[in-house]
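Researcher: Good morning. I'm working through a list of sequences from a screen, and I'd like to move beyond sequence-only analysis. For each chain I'm collecting a predicted structure so we can compare shapes side by side. This is the next one on the list. No need for commentary yet; just the structure.
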Amino acid sequence: MCRSMKPLILLLVLSPLAWAQEDEFSFDVEEFEPKVFEFTGYIEGQPEYARANQDSALYQLQFFGRDPEKEIDRFTGSLELEGHLRKGIASINFQTHSEMVWDYLGDNDDHALYQGYMSLQPDPSFALDLGKKAMRWGKGYAWNPVAFVERAKDAGDPDLSREGYWIIAADWITIFDGPLQTQIALTPLILPVRSDTNQDFGEPGYNNLGGKVYLLYRDIDIDFMFLSNGSRNNRVGMDFSRNMAPNFEVHGELAYFSDAVHRTVTPECKPGKPRVEDEISYLIGTRYRTSNDITLIMEYYFNGLGNEKKDQEQFYRCVHQAWESGDQDLINRLPLGKDVDKGPFSKPNPMRRYMNFRVWWEKPRNLLYLTPGVQVLYNLDDRSYSVSPDISYIGFENLELRLRGTVPVGDSLTEWGEKPNKYKVELRARYYF
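Model: Good morning. Structure tokens for this chain:
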């Protein structure tokens, strides 16, 4: 993105916006009919301030060979566009995401097609999708162990859009009448991996076969899913959700992975012999909404693909050793991956046992448009955690404001004790159009 665009982005993101005007109620049947073309999106500005934790391993990875920073400032400008064109049995759908970041690394921009696919629906019970599509498998809010064909959520901000994969997928739905009415939906898919297609999914040269079967039985939502051996090893799973009461829901997921590979680091800070084992991952959670609009979510997550505590601690020790000695070769030997944020030891939530607690209160004490909340992510293996209070305001027309802070808490050699900052504060201004 050229430098001349910066003032325009800042002006669009931060310009004053009019207060919402009260509209008279009206009913128009045409508003409920599918439109031939729909176009929506948002533009967002997000300034961040963080106090650096210079003694942490992830800070030392980020600033190895660079001038150290006590304060880490960042401004992110984002533009996301979404559209749908419908004609007869066909529709074309797209979603793009563009991002410009100004931080200690300078100016960086990224533009991605999150979704771009054609859908053919010759019958209400059957549809065929071809192109790049983001699948959404699983019932968990912070994590989804059964999300076999999608990119991982950010547990701290799980509602963010995510980029999809190029696929061929179908949806077939049928209903069986009887004393217990049952609805079934079948979703088979093919996900090809080549050197220039879905290359970050796994080993190239495979047409990966996967699928999901959905059942609605006795008011229980149940899914069974699988991914065949190919670019990734075999995996099967299931999930469920059930409303036990109008304001109380329970949900869960269970996944089995064959020949899961666990990376290790030796005491000499070299890649060790990987452990290959069959593993399971599972999640169990609840969601409860009180009579005065307080919503609480509690989830337990066991990540069978995660690292053992001793392996994670050894990785942190090696990073500290490299920082103290200034040994770039030692850093190069560590299993970091092409992107540090996605490495087996440096990605978010790389270990095995976690808790997620989140609560928010809509219109507290009848304060319209205001929603305060807090989220706690807790690592049960090393007893470190993060606390993230936030407050959002939607009193302006088409504008959402959110102020959020994050404080990681933990000792040395723990997940949140080794985060790159002591605390972080961010303001998000998102304007929808």
